[in-house]
């Protein structure tokens, strides 16, 4: 619980000008102002007011006026007076006791017309929405979140503590302009990428705020209004939205049990965004033969592959398939890696691999966008990987996820036999298809009040007309022993007529 | 010093395929591969190799071949064999002893033509460049960096430790999609903004990765190819570059001793970027009357003011001027605040204040760009402000900077009388103009080998034809007692003919 700071930093005169209600005595106006400031949260419960002498001087009022106002508010229970230490804001009151006059400051004429000024309207895009209170739900079949029971708090803490040593702070605190932390680049260069079969130079690596920023940078730099971009359908909505922001020619490419289909829709694409390790959202892995065929096509038809190596670290097989990038002999694959899934989403850490000439431009663009990824987190993450904690954590996640996936498949077969599930070869979710007529949105909405969080499938398709029968059921945040009970509730809901179109 | 992790995560077969030099025995090829892997840093000094049995299985070689190769490299001093624990990479060797064959893997035909694919070339923009080794220089008159002698290590550590408690990690670790940390929004809402006279609602605040990201978001959302944007000249190059990325109509607006001139060049501007608190780079403060006149013009001529409240926290006067935004009655001012200067640049923390409808779009755009600002740092910063450490740090910075500014002005008058200095009313740098013919770039280059870091002035102007006689001399990173000696060196350099055009 943070201490409540002093309120000496407020500009009292401007507070007075803003909140005083003109008709009435100055004392009355001062009372109004203080009541408003408390009601609107600018003065927090427990905060100390300045000495009446100081306040009077700042507001240009007599000290008597101020003293009388403070006394009046003390009588009303809004302030508390303490002998020799002055006045403090009282603990929170029932809302009714404060006349919470809303701030009706009418805008002066000539306000800007913001709608007319917008060059785009990103809020109108279809996107994944997650309930903010999912952590309080008993059956969080939510995707890509965080399980406090698995996270190695002690290991992360040890690494974060290293980055709090004065010598380490001296390294990360200055403005790094466009540079990355060399220790993290080193770990990616000689540990994370080689584990995917990828051997590149350090100047082919750029640290990003997650895969999200990597795809945004590529969209900005490489995609213009007429560029043709293909993306898996169903696919990753956040990447699709990034490309749609730049080009009107985003093509939906079909997916089968081996991932992206190498079909006629690829013709004319200049960029193809693909998730070969575990297709998002279906989780299937693209076999080696198809990978090689895709690369051969890219070279023949002169397109570039953007490989999002989605959840490659989460693999129930002992032999992971090498990344597309590791097979790339003509620098046609741009590679996106994430540390969010395996470290923590909130840290926003990822990386991008591209030819050095392209990284130079991406780095200059990232500088414009935010300069660099916060350096203290880069240092902590580098140390987490260097100590071997990251590998140990991945082994643990794989063991636990394998168990959870098995339990989920068993429970689905028993309690929700109308759902057809794609068998999880890795990753952290199961993709299921219900019977004709299932309305996934209605189902998700019906399940939520019962404490079951699942993700509707339609959001992964370019047009909402598809995926109405589909769901993504995540298991990265739900304990093993809750899985069956949660699936039982899903099974019951499927019987109700209100979950059908 | 991090321990060296095991190398079990390498894909050995792909390493072999990549680095083995085909002509020669398999044993020879394996040696080549290992030498290359060590030379290129994929195998770090001290790293343990897998057991020979494992390696043989992964590579499809006989165990004898592997054992002989490892033994041969041990004889060459590249590996070290330890009884019962296996082989390890030897400590770094003189470069000559490793035949560091560069990787000449020729690109297969059909590589992508990246130059033709670029939609923009941000690396070509003129920008501030800072030497990476400035911390090792005796006279770092560098701008906006970090002084380890002033930073409250203990206070920051205490706040960062709070955010490492398991309960706190549970709050920051999940994916927050487009949300901000409520504790940091609260501190900005009821402490930082009211200290600038600004009283807004919580939904008018967006956390950003510094002012850099705030200006990029605004440029993306509001500025199109034909939008006319005005920016101070000299002005902040990173903002100018952001606007130039979007529009070909960026107008240079003159500046005088009171900041932005309200002259004819403002006509037709749809957006005006301004730094009224301390003009960047001249450090002058815009008086209240000019602020009011600027707002009246904005309303009359229907333009929007982007207020970068640059270094408002660093004020040697006891009475800071209220922000433009605090005077704004028609929601025409978009406000950018920074925590970089006063917390630490490397953390990349700032905020943006705008009408709620605009914040909604900016938030959706930020989601596409990176989702959200790393939440662990948001929590630590919120706690740093809530505990009052931020205010205490600001008081300390102001006290120390006032002394340094005075010492700098005295030293300049004594040792470099040909430089005309703008008197610092606050901020962290002094802006100086030399005599006709001074070549600031040549001067900066001549000073650097003598351990003196200063910033050339031309970079702050839209065209490099201006500012050749000007310099920014920062004092946020140089100790008081070094100032005079550093200025003496500047004074001597000014006498040399090689610093004139």
Keywords:
homodimer; 501 residues; Arc Repressor Mutant, subunit A; Aspartate Aminotransferase, domain 1; Aspartate Aminotransferase, domain 2; 3 domains; eight-stranded mixed β-sheet; four-stranded antiparallel β-sheet; 13% strand; disordered N terminus
Write the layout of secondary structure elements.
2 copies of one chain form a homodimer.
Chain A: H1 12-19, H2 26-39, H3 52-59, H4 63-75, E1 79-82, E2 86-89, H5 114-117, E3 139-140, H6 153-162, H7 166-172, H8 182-192, E4 205-208, H9 210-222, E5 229-233, H10 237-246, E6 250-256, E7 259-260, E8 271-274, H11 288-301, E9 304-308, H12 324-327, E10 333-338, E11 350-353, H13 356-370, H14 375-386, H15 389-415, E12 420-421, E13 429-433, H16 440-447, E14 452-453, E15 455-456, E16 470-474, H17 483-495
Helix pairs in contact in A: 1-2, 2-4, 3-4, 6-14, 8-14, 9-10, 15-17
Structure description:
Two copies of one chain form a homodimer. In chain A, helix 1 packs across helix 2. Chain A has three domains: 86 residues, Arc Repressor Mutant, subunit A, CATH 1.10.10.10; 126 residues, Aspartate Aminotransferase, domain 1 (Alpha-Beta Complex); 238 residues, Aspartate Aminotransferase, domain 2 (3-Layer(aba) Sandwich), CATH 3.40.640.10. The first copy, chain A, has an eight-stranded mixed sheet, with helices on both faces. Chain A has a four-stranded antiparallel sheet with strand order 12-13-16-15, covered by helices on one side. With 501 residues, chain A is an alpha/beta fold. At the A-B interface, helix 1, helix 5, helix 6, helix 7 and helix 8 of A face helix 1, helix 5, helix 6, helix 7 and helix 8 of B.
């Amino acid at each position: 619980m943070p201490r409540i700071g002093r309120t000496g930093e407020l500009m009292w005169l401007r507070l007075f000008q803003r909140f005083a209600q003109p008709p009435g005595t100055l004392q009355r106006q001062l009372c109004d102002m203080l009541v408003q400031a408390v009601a609107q949260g600018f003065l927090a419960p427990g905060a100390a007011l300045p000495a009446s002498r100081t306040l009077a001087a700042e507001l240009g009022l007599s000290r008597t006026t101020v003293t009388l106002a403070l006394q009046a508010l003390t009588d009303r229970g809004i302030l508390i007076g303490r002998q020799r230490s002055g006045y403090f804001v009282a603990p929170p009151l029932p809302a009714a006791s404060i006349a919470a006059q809303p701030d009706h400051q009418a805008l002066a004429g000539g306000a800007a017309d913001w709608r007319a000024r917008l060059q785009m309207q990103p809020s109108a895009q279809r996107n994944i929405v997650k309930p903010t209170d999912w952590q309080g739900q008993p059956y969080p079949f939510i995707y890509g979140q965080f399980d406090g029971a698995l996270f190695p708090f002690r290991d992360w803490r040890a690494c974060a503590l290293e980055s709090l040593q004065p010598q380490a702070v001296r390294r990360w605190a200055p403005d790094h302009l466009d540079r990355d932390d060399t220790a993290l680049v080193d770990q990616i260069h000689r540990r994370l990428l080689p584990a995917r079969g990828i051997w590149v130079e350090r100047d082919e690596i750029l640290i990003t705020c997650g895969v999200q920023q990597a795809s945004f940078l590529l969209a900005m730099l490489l995609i213009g209004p007429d560029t043709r971009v293909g993306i898996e359908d169903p696919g990753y909505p956040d990447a699709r939205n990034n490309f749609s922001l730049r080009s009107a020619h985003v093509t939906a490419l079909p997916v089968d049990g081996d991932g992206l289909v190498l079909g006629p829709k690829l013709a004319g694409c200049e960029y193809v965004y693909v998730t070969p390790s575990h297709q998002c959202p279906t989780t299937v892995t693209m076999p080696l033969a198809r990978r090689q065929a895709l690369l051969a096509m890219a070279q023949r038809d002169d397109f570039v592959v953007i490989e999002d190596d989605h959840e490659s670290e989460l693999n129930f097989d002992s032999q992971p398939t090498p990344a597309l990038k590791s097979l790339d002999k003509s620098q046609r694959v741009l590679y996106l890696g994430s540390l969010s899934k395996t470290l923590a989403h909130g840290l926003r850490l990822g990386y991008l691999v591209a030819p050095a000439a392209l990284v130079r431009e991406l780095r200059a663009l990232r500088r414009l966008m935010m300069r660099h990824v916060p350096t203290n987190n880069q240092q902590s993450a580098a140390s987490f990987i260097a100590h071997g904690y990251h590998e140990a954590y991945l082994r643990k996640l794989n063991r636990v996820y394998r168990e959870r996936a098995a339990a989920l498949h068993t429970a689905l077969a028993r309690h929700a036999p109308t759902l057809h599930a794609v068998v999880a070869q890795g990753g952290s979710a199961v993709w299921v298809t219900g019977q004709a007529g299932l309305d996934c949105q209605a189902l998700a909405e019906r399940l939520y009040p019962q404490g079951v969080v699942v993700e509707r499938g339609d959001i992964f398709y370019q047009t909402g007309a598809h995926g109405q029968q589909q769901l993504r059921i995540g298991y990265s945040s739900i304990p093993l022993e809750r899985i069956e009970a949660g699936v039982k509730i899903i099974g019951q809901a499927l019987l109700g007529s209100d979950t059908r179109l």
